[in-house]
Amino acid sequence: MQTAQCVAVQGDFERCIRLETELETAYAYFSDFSYVLPRLPEIDRVLHYSDGRYRMIFGADDGRGHDMGIVFDIRHEFLTDRHIKIHSVPLSTQDLHNDPRLANSKGPLFPGRFSGETLFHKRGNHIEVVYRAELHIEIEIPRFLSFMPRRVVQQLGDGLMNLKLHKVGNGLAERMASDFTEWHSLKQKHTIKTLAMPRSKNGLN
Description:
4 helices
């Protein structure tokens, strides 16, 4: 039985996004991973685990129109000066097989590495957010490309991945204003609801 050939593919993107808000509010938005991660373009699902990890399933195809998914495990770190780092958590194919919540995936899944950072700068009356991300995966070479030199397949894979990630970056920038406005509205409604909750006679809810 012939062993499948694999190729390591990588890509990255950076976007500078303007938000008309206060610095602390912008920082709070990007710190809300349960809200922000599922709204990243091309992300099919996001799972949150009890140890603080987030598992993202990135939708893709194998070049012939067949669905596949790239899975990333990440953790976040809050640094000084309102700097958010996203660290990749090691993930194996066996880890994916052992996760029952991935059993009904549309196509084959491949583990990958996703890392990034978010920086915030106050620019007069608005906030400039710099979002950087980097992605690494190793996938099987489709049979119809197996006759090509590895160098050519590598270049093709990197090129396609960068196109995909630039699409993610563009979608992130285009949707940021509406996603942020929705999040901010939900937070305000939650605050008003909390303040309006009746209190017991001893002052406790």
